[in-house]
Amino acid sequence: MRRVLAVVACSAVLAVGTPTHAAEGPPEHIPRLTDDRGRVLTLRGWNVEDKTHRGEQALSAITERHFRDMRAQGFNFARLLVFWDDLEPVRGRYSEAYLRKIERVLDWAEKYDVQVLIDAHQDVFGPAFGHRGIPRWATRTDGLPFTPHPDDWFAEYFEPAVQRAFTHLYEDEDLRRAQARMWRVLADRFEDHPAVLGYDLINEPMGELREGEDLPTAARRIEREQLTAMYNRLADAVRSVDRDNWIFVEPTPIVGEGVPTGLGKIKDPKIVYAPHFYNTAMEAGADYDPAAGWVESYEAAVTAYPKEYRVPVVVGEWGPLNNSLPNMGRFYRDALVSLGRYSSGWAGYVWCYGGGYCAVDAEGRFRTNKEQTAAPYASAVAGVVREEAGSADAYRLVYDAARRGSRVTELSLPPSPTGWRVTVRGAGPRPRTWTDSGPVRIHALPGARVEVSVTRAAG
Fold this sequence. Notes:
The chain is an alpha/beta fold. It is about 25% helix and about 20% strand. The strands form 4 sheets. It has a 7-stranded parallel sheet. It has a 5-stranded mixed sheet with strand order 1-18-15-12-2, with no helix packed on it. Helix 4 crosses helix 5 (about 175-190), helix 5 packs across helix 6 and helix 8 (about 295-310) packs parallel to helix 9 (about 330-340). About 50% of the residues are buried. Mean pLDDT is about 90; it is low at about 1-25.
């Protein structure tokens, strides 16, 4: 059973130094995601989705091209949106055809060495409110009203019927069992698939506000009293069939307002905290305002939980709708630096071919400013990371090579017209240098202090 980040194809091997299991660092630090060989992982990639097609056409908008093109740009990670309403359209009857469609997508990911997070996605609860996610048969509103907001779909989360539907999902015992069974079906089917890294238990969960409650107070209560219990139930369901893959848990989207989560401890040894990175004003069309301090307040909010509970962080969605406004270049630079400080990786929203949130246009070219996401990085480090910093044009890594376990550190380099200059120091009397464009594998001697420098080669 393979439980590792898919190995990057080897374009060069630089013998420098051997492996230790990845250390977590001092208590105030956030642990890094690791594979079953103890290597420190970095995930860089995109969400892949098909929210439009259902039934026989479900997932048809996702093609092999998605994974081929992502991997060609150096990305190693995809967050795959799947929908409970397609998996179990009739209560107790799971769609074998839908499971096969998911498997086909995973097979493409495996072919191109992309690791996949299976995300049980919901938007505004599900089809009962014109969206996707929780099936109609699992939607209970107690007859409360729902008014669509076609120009502001997120406002629909605050409609009484939607809020009550979340309460029933969290509190009704039969719906709890149904949700757990759904996850057992998914995990049992895909636990051994080589592309599967883990499971995101529910996308952007919300809940019901009480009279007189402001939104931050309500969010912390929902996370503390309802989401914590739900995640522990669903983690138990997954572990009944899959002992190895990572389990990802999300706070409410209110974390985007700089509100630390009220989520409690999830009693599982392989939990990843997976917040989303969206700003309300920017989602409404405003430009990035560096002076507002939003990136800093978000970082402070999302790092509190993983520091307390000693779990890695992977940001499951991020990226503004209008990425070509004057300050968006600065936003991408600031965001990527911030994400690199505390997270084990991220999935941008969304890899598709067109406008809106799409990463690339119809010809597969990055849309304005999104090319900054394709940068050199170490996808797997066989040792303890001491220093790490990078940009679209350069990358620096210092690590103490592992004393046991894997001997291979992997670098992922995006396409560059002039190639990349990779210099490795720490193994012998002279540094080793390699110039080309393509992934690199580094073999390290036990305990060596290894310094890696990546810069664009001269034209």
